[in-house]
Design brief:
2 domains, Immunoglobulin-like, 407 residues, single chain, ten-stranded mixed beta sheet, eight-stranded mixed beta sheet, 11% helix
Length: 407
Amino acid sequence: MFAKRLFNVLVVLVLGIVGFFAFRVAAEAGTPGRYSSRYNQTRQTAESVEVAGSIPEVRIDAEDYSFTVPETISAGWVRIILTNSGAEPHHIQFLRLNDGVTANQFIDALKQDIGPALAMVKEVGGVAPIHPSESASAILNLPVGDYVVLCLIPSPSDQTPHHAKGMFKSLKVEVGAIVAAEPSADLTVHMKDFQFDMPDSLPAGALTVEVINDGPESHEFNIHRLEDGKTANDVLEFLNGAGGPPPFTPVGGLNGLGIGLKGYAELNLEPGTYIVICMIPSPKAEGHPHFTLGMIKQFTVESAASTNFPTGKFIKAGRTNYGLLFNADGTFSVFEGENTFIRATYTVEGNVFTERSNTGGCETNESFTYTFDGTNLTFNYVGNPDDDTACAGRHADFNNATYTLVE
């Protein structure tokens, strides 16, 4: 009864993700890919990739009910830009067919039972649901192979999934002439059973989020903006059949990722209150969606930075090529020479600078007072600096530290 009631609620909500994954019975085990950095005195680096060009872009138009998709896409890192030209919400899910499986075999299996069909594929991400007239993008790592892409959101009028109305395409991913390096991110989010490891606040504006599925089940990173005055509890009540209009609006993110995989969600969020949610059901918990097991998180999006806070490249006092680079969009980085160690986000209120996220694995929302005389920028902890000594790098960078603006 729970599953049936939940499905009916989600149909009203026009989100078909649960219906897609509800019959997935098993997933192969994965090894969590935790990272660390200079802030923890160790750092993992990505494999060296020879860059022959920028990340290829594939523009996909979603209508009611079809996709405009190229027949072939180059393997490797690819930016997928989805535009919703229809009158209903749409998303796109990329599925790599297992070796030896054809698109026709998958289609035939999908018509019979979604369970056996899903055993034929691997989820490699996609662009999460967006409203009509909106666009969103995600960067996926596509291995060579045969694929299908589809939209699984049901129509509110007849509850028929969009893929059954024609939003289903097959394509090939082939070795291309351009080899793109893995993109850089402003912050990293880890998904695991059953939580999102991410900050409580993000800066407004453009933000690239590395999303890693530590498993051991498939997960998704779907973002929704809450209506004014609503909370994550209102969402849970709605999904449990409370009735009324949906208390949130889909604004993109990253669709289903298999175990051990990652992708990049390219966000452009306005200030407000949001949730990130995973609706994939758990085969180990009688098919209950992951959000019922704790995989829903409320967060805020705040104005990026105060106009009074200086931006630019700063060198630390007593050093020659080590410093901080602050951007007006609320992002900053720690560098030495040409090497960037840490990427992070920040907000400023009055004379208080707050680090909201970082790729260094440190606790977030640490605050510092700052002074700037036009040339020199000095930071001091709000509270006891010794409380942050576990994060040695940040402690050294912000504990009564002065930087000089150089450009």
